[in-house]
Design a protein that fits this description.
Elements: E1 2-5, H1 11-23, H2 32-37, E2 42-47, E3 50-61, E4 64-72, H3 81-95, E5 100-105, H4 108-113, E6 117-118, H5 125-130, E7 144-149
Parallel strand pairs: 4-5
Antiparallel strand pairs: 1-2, 2-3, 3-4, 5-7, 6-7
Amino acid sequence: MQIEHAVTSDVKEIHALIQHFAEKGLVLPRSLLSIYQHLQCMYVARENNQIVGVGGLHILGHDLGEVRSLVVSSDHMGKGIGRMLVNHITNEAARLGVKRLISFTYQIEFFKKCGFEIAEKATLPEKVWIDCVSCPKLDCCDETAMIKYI
């Protein structure tokens, strides 16, 4: 299993994987254009030349980053791939000088196992003003904010 930066030839496969879980309401959808525009901060887990997981690191401020679009293909769940991606993203965030790593998620127990704790959304104005203000779930957000200090 390898974790590596995504490349342009990965975008359609990344999009399909994210879209699969977005249709189930487990992550927010991403357009192909959005994936291309943020490709430099997307990571993929590959097994036998196939993408089996994806996750992104989005920098929100001078010491704040976010784990985004973290998904693992259904037939590869439970193999530690999600944790490998989070660990890789955490290491990249630390390398960049990020001190706080957040996730807005439905997968509370998973992120707790990765060292995150529940946070109040009000303590993360960078996220709210950058992303949440244009999110279709702004007035009815049901995701849980979680944070890890690194």
